[in-house]
Amino acid sequence: MPDHICSVCGKPAENKIKERWFCRDHFSSATHQRPHAWRGFVLLIVGLLVFVGLVYLLDAVFKPVLAGSALVWAGILMALVPAVVWMIFFYWQDRIEPEPKGYILAVFLLGGLLAAAIGTPLLESIFHVSKWLYADTAATIIGSILVVGFSQEFLKYAAVRYSIYRSVEFDEATDGVIYATAAGLGYATLLNIQFVVSNGGVDLGASVIRMAVVALAHASFASITGYFLGRAKFEQKPFWWMALGLTLAAIVNGLFNWLRGQVVSSRISLGSPSSNPWMGLLLATFLAVLTSGVILWLVQRDIRADLASEI
Amino acid sequence: MTETTLTKKTFSFGDHFSEWLVAGVTLVALLAGWLYKSSVENRSVQFENSGINAQTPQGWHNLTPQGDEVLHVSDPLSSGFGTTYIVQRIPVEAGSVVGQAASLLTLQRGQQLTAYRVLDQKPVTVYGQAAYEMSYVFVESDPNLTHDKFPNIVHGLDYIYMSGDHVIVVTYWAEKHSYDYDLGRFQRFLRSLKF
Predict the structure, then answer these.
(1) Which CATH number is B45-192 given?
(2) What ipTM goes with this model?
(3) Which of B41, B90, B85 is nearest to B68 (CA)?
(4) Could you report the per-residue pLDDT of A199-251, keeping only the tens digit for each?
(5) pTM for the full model?
(6) In chain B, domain spans
(7) Which residues of A touch B75 (CB under 8 A)?
(8) Within an 8 Å CB–CB cutoff, is residue B194 touching chain A?
(9) What residue spans define the domains of chain A?
(10) B6 and A11: CB-CB below 8 Å?
(11) B121 by DSSP, 3-state: which?
């Protein structure tokens, strides 16, 4: 029997990173930076902004007249675009050392399924959030963090933690961010599809902005949890580490929900209440850029520290 | 020993404790959220008019009472038809009984409300007070011809009390899908009602 076994594959281990042992292959992957994953996330942001601009422009120029099921199907197709854009860019960038497509797709679907089976029923039919969440500012912030934030972020965490996390394919610290982003996009896609179906179809120009906002925001929240998941697998972290990650993601989720309401409907009008969805898109883009930037910096810093502490 | 077994063994007690802590923190947050939700929904303000006082929900729109109405409040956060409480104080002839008042109210509602149908009516005791309960439905009719939404089916509930030479009619209107959920809050309002 070997003295130590690899934390990822269970084979005899030779190297150690802060109390966790790794075989030669997985030590190499655990300290690998994988720049392609970050480019995939940045391209998701750019790709979505281009997509929004394009749909908005086409809608304004051609003014397509869609009705009934055609309108619903057009909306559902638009809801799928953010996830497709991310997957295309991710695989295009990651083709040299790709994650298994099946696992990425499975985690994406699991995120969506958990949203449909637990997330939405919990918020709409048990917590009845629409009845009280917007009563005042305090209710919006506290309710968005405790109820919306924690329930949504726990389900995205569960989609990764109880599926791919223990697999040998989860062999790099960056994998936490990649798989959590897939779960977040699955969750967002389901929310967008529910929005389209419950409204019997949506105005393409206006709803494309909403869909991009939801996708960028959920991918960003999930990537926070993903960073903590990735570190927890490759380092011996304190028992409260993962709970801290989930709490941070829930707080960002709740604050974003409140802030989005503020910036989208803050204009004073003498007529009917007005809203500016572009401000929501700006906020979501800022959140996505900030989140990916901070996590990239943290991962690079951690890997440098790991290599410095190598035995 | 297989790879799978070895992989499982690499997860320490600390990892499992961490897992349980994440689930525990989420449950505690949801429980705290539930308690906070209840506190938001139970917030109320004191109302007093024409010798009638009650605790009405905080943050609801206070509409200008019309005719015999002394209170008319509506929930701005309801989707579709806003859940509404109305209290009326209607003068009646001496010697009138509550059943007569209920019949008059039915005729009046039949003229005013679209597709009005009485579902049930019976004498009841509400928090120690004798009353007459009427359950009914109607279709919300928005007089605005440019209103481009489907009309809502509204479920109504009246409690009629005799009070000297007046009847006090306490009305609860809610859209069909939110009727049961909002009923608990209406019952708290009813319990706080003094006249």
Answers:
(1) 3.40.1000.10
(2) 0.84
(3) B90
(4) 887 887 778 899 999 999 999 999 999 999 998 888 888 889 999 999 999 99
(5) 0.83
(6) 3-38, 45-192
(7) 131
(8) no
(9) 1-30, 34-308
(10) yes
(11) strand
